[in-house]
């Protein structure tokens, strides 16, 4: 195998965040309430509509007010790109208005201008794990076809306003998560034990069509735009070489790949047609939907990668479950796990990159990867996060090997370059950043930014374009 020393010229090194996890200012300047605002246990847990208590999502890390100094720190690290999401509720507070809220657009314009000032390429996620709460209350979330038009209007508004300054876009964060946590990105509510495939697949179809319309309208406005999908990759290994285990792994992987298959190939895969028929799922489609999917496939495949999974047909393996932010899984005896039980697997990143590139032959963008850990500020004020450096180094090394394998990877934005609220716990205990934020899960602290040891490490990785890790 040939080695590469450096990453390709123009490689998009950077970091990734989501609006609800860091902005705060949840009621400022005309913003409406979002689903994250009523998720005090984390955006992956069921909401609490009667919520009155403190909710960290309301405050984030105050990025709404500190974006200039935070972006200056990203620039100091040499970021080439910064992935962030737009809060739908800042632009359309209830989601179904026709006219956007100018103050919301102005905020993001300022963020974009600040990035451009430092030659940092803005990468926008149009919808990251939240939506206007009114769309859930009045329309039952993505179950309703009406959301397609609302989303199209929202996406069109953003493209029209920002297309000259922003080239890279993603339609939905981790779109496949609707299978595991249906409220998170799709706003689906189920009573205990009532979760059903019918609503989930119908909602996914609406999101597919909305995403394809966004690709269409984005390209009409500016053919140079690069509009991608974004999946939570969930590479699955067979527990053993037993053929049944291998089959189980293939079947489990399809639950993820289904989402990128539709968005990248432009049609429902045959395996899913069978599943839908066998399970009496009736996906209601409008005339022209299949053509819309076919004609508006994504330009690149964005994905997150934190861990790998294992499939087994042995009952005793199924008992030894490990945790993850989305689904519990079979423990892999060859891997160590993070403090939150996520199984750390750098080689898996190379494997999944090969898998996705083989399948689609479209550029890949690794838009999330990182280690959530507890960090400690020492008496001298330093934060020695060697555990994080080790994790990232190992993953970047494997990404380098994937490029040597022939995979076209255009960028890497590690998750949470600055500490932010955790999606699965709604706390500030599980940290990902190169920059420490002096704030705790109760919102107490000076909010001061402190450079961790990983700050200079990542800065050097970028400066040497990945030659020195
Ligand atoms: C991904 C989400 C992010 C982010 C990350 C880490 O699934 O897209 O929003 O939060 O996971 O998860 P957590 O914050 O739960 O550690």
From TrEMBL:
A GO biological process held by the record: carbohydrate catabolic process
GO CC, any one term: cytosol
Keyword terms: Glycosidase, Hydrolase
Pfam families for the chain: Glyco_hydro_1
Protein's UniProt keywords contain Plastid: no
Active site: 368 (nucleophile)
UniProt keyword Hydrolase, yes or no: yes
Molecular function terms, GO-annotated: beta-glucosidase activity
Family: Belongs to the glycosyl hydrolase 1 family.
Protein name: 6-phospho-beta-glucosidase
